[in-house]
Amino acid sequence: MSTTTPAERTLVLLKPDAVRRGLVGELLGRFERKGLTIDAMELRTIDGAAADAHYAEHTEQPWYPPLRAFVTSGPLVALVLSGDEAITVTRALIGSTDGRKAAAGTIRGDFSLSNRENLVHASDSPESAKREIDLWFPGQA
Ligand code: CDP
Ligand code: MG
């Protein structure tokens, strides 16, 4: 194997709907088959303060209270994925935010019929990846 660029890292959450629906293996399999590497992974149940820190950019949105209730509603799987252009590649694999509109073949397009319960979070830029990895896995950014 040869790579021309150093591996990039991204923060991914398999949200509580993914755990409840028994889709953790399916979703991890998609990331692994793509060639991404799992660098860290933990099953965790978060409280409201942790949700506020993770979704800091969204806490003033009218839809934030139900999102907060959803992400704190049960265990989720937090992980760090690495690989060439991991941030962009992972966002492409998960698809657009609204599962009803996400393209077939993407995770949200294949498994979600919701704009909220859309199974996966993934960092959207190098800056957010660093912030989110620091938040979820301190010392591993
Ligand atoms: O997750 P992504 O970056 O694709 O979307 P976002 O616009 O950053 O929104 C973050 C999360 O908020 C989404 O993944 C949804 O779970 C939730 N959301 C929601 O509950 N209601 C909306 N109208 C929009 C987003
Ligand atoms: Mg986002």
Automatic annotation (TrEMBL):
Cofactor(s) required for function per UniProt: Mg(2+)
Ligand binding (ATP): K15, R91, T97, R108, N118
GO CC annotation terms, alphabetical: cytoplasm
Occurrences of domain Nucleoside diphosphate kinase-like (ranges): 7-140
Localization: Cytoplasm
Enzymatic reactions: a 2'-deoxyribonucleoside 5'-diphosphate + ATP = a 2'-deoxyribonucleoside 5'-triphosphate + ADP; a ribonucleoside 5'-diphosphate + ATP = a ribonucleoside 5'-triphosphate + ADP
This protein's UniProt keywords: ATP-binding, Cytoplasm, Kinase, Magnesium, Metal-binding, Nucleotide metabolism, Nucleotide-binding, Phosphoprotein, Transferase
GO molecular function, one term: ATP binding
Pfam families cross-referenced by the UniProt entry: NDK
Claim: Repeat is one of the keywords in the record: no
Predominant location category: cytoplasm
A biological process term (GO) from this entry: UTP biosynthetic process
Documented EC number(s): 2.7.4.6
Catalytic site: H121
Keyword DNA-binding: no
Top EC class of this enzyme: transferase
Similarity field: Belongs to the NDK family.
HAMAP family: NDP_kinase
SUBUNIT field: Homotetramer.
Role played: Major role in the synthesis of nucleoside triphosphates other than ATP. The ATP gamma phosphate is transferred to the NDP beta phosphate via a ping-pong mechanism, using a phosphorylated active-site intermediate.
Name the record gives this protein: Nucleoside diphosphate kinase
